[in-house]
Write a structure and sequence with these properties.
Order of helices and strands: EEEHHHHHEHEHEHEEEHEEHEEEEEH
Number of strands: 16
Bound molecules: 5-S-methyl-1-O-phosphono-5-thio-D-ribulose
Structural class: alpha/beta
Shape: globular
Strand order of the largest sheet: 6-5-4-7-10-15-16
Distance between the termini: 27 Å
Number of helices: 11
Length: 353
């Protein structure tokens, strides 16, 4: 990590709490919250105080490890039953990002072989820390792999925030920009504001400026004009869940950018760790799409911008079909073609390691 990297961590383990950067309050305020109960953890994930698929998984993992410390039994089977209940509750916090269930399942598996409750409790803490440590290295590798796709002088578009604060460190879609800076490669980002809750404007613009990366903010409706006028050479975004055939759920607006990229004949890339793939799902139609509070659309920052009674449709994510995706950049390399075959091969190889 370059010395000048000044983006704070979004999640940290503290012995008696999970410390998170409150992303609801950015950019006005850099505030930290100390989550101490299952309800705190659930609320933080549900209300986007912590968000972004990998960061959601890491927070839930720390939350489960923390809550498990106060399960009061010395019987391992009874402990695992209680652990399963907490896991099931936390798993309901948000439906689309598969990193949530992926991380929680990993934690439960780490406790299953324990010979005592104390051992299980220790395993859970170690596993949650391990998930965070691995995610940082995974994101760094995604950035390295993505870097080969860009050249100095390129202007690249993104949406939402798939950056350092959405992960352990570096981010997925934003990782190559941090790495480019250390190599004196000059890349410029155009960040879409990302209505309704403005992760692009509030979070991506803020974090890239903290990290000293060149960023220009546009509203979502400026994407086509900007692609044309600013010579955008690629689009790169994150993902919340990728089906076996490469169809990808990501922040609402991503699908539209993919269609625009095709119209302008520029490559459209997804950057995501293997923990964001859900190979149990054959295609995007089977990915659950979260629908959120209509007031996120009727209000901006607490200010009413539409009639309170107007019916609202507020899907938080959309699905980009794989045939609009030029490549999925993972920590293991870039999947560019024959998505289904390549994803299957990747996961068969993973199962052997
Ligand atoms: O609703 P959010 O802010 O959690 O949505 C986040 C995204 O869509 C990100 O692109 C995705 O989770 C990847 S974060 C590395």
């Amino acid at each position: 990590m370059p010395e000048q990297f000044a983006v704070p961590r979004s999640v940290e383990w503290e012995e008696a709490s999970v410390k998170i950067l409150n992303q609801q309050k950015l950019p006005e305020k850099t505030e930290y919250l100390h989550l101490t109960t299952k309800e705190d953890v659930y609320d933080a994930i549900q209300t986007l105080k912590v968000r972004g698929a990998p960061a959601i998984g890491i927070t839930a993992a720390f939350g489960l490890a923390l809550c498990a410390q106060s399960i009061n039994t010395s019987d391992v089977s009874a402990f695992l039953v209680e652990l399963g209940k907490i896991k099931d509750e936390l798993n309901q916090a948000r439906p689309t990002a598969v990193n949530l269930s992926w991380a929680l399942n990993r934690l439960v598996i780490s406790a299953e072989d324990a010979k005592s409750v104390n051992e299980a409790k220790t395993n859970l803490i170690h596993e949650a820390i391990q998930i965070q440590v691995e995610d940082e290295e995974t994101c760094r590798q995604i950035g390295q792999n993505a870097l080969h796709l860009f050249k100095s002088g390129d202007s690249i578009m993104t949406i939402c925030n798939a950056g350092s604060i959405a992960t352990s460190r570096y981010g997925t879609a934003l990782s190559p920009f941090y790495l480019a800076k250390t190599k004196d490669l000059d890349l410029h980002i155009y960040a879409c504001e990302t209505r309704p809750v403005l992760q692009g404007a509030r979070l991506t613009a803020w974090e890239l400026m903290q990290g000293g990366i060149d960023v220009t903010l546009i509203t979502d409706s400026m994407a086509a004009h900007t692609m044309k006028e600013k010579n955008i050479s690629a689009v790169i975004v994150g993902a919340d869940r990728i089906a076996r055939n490469g169809d990808t759920a990501n922040k609402i607006g991503t699908y539209g950018l993919a269609i625009l990229a095709k119209a302008f004949q520029i490559p459209f890339f997804i950057a995501a760790p293997l923990s964001t793939f859900d190979v149990s799902i054959s295609c995007g139609d089977n990915i659950p799409i979260e629908e959120r509070d209509p007031d996120e659309v009727r209000l901006i920052n607490g200010t009413q911008i539409a009639p309170q009674e107007v019916p609202v449709f507020n899907p938080a994510f959309d699905i980009t079909p794989h045939d609009l995706i030029s490549g999925i950049i993972t920590e293991k390399g870039i999947i560019t073609d024959r998505f289904e075959e390549e994803i299957e091969a990747l996961f068969s190889a993973e199962a052997l390691t």
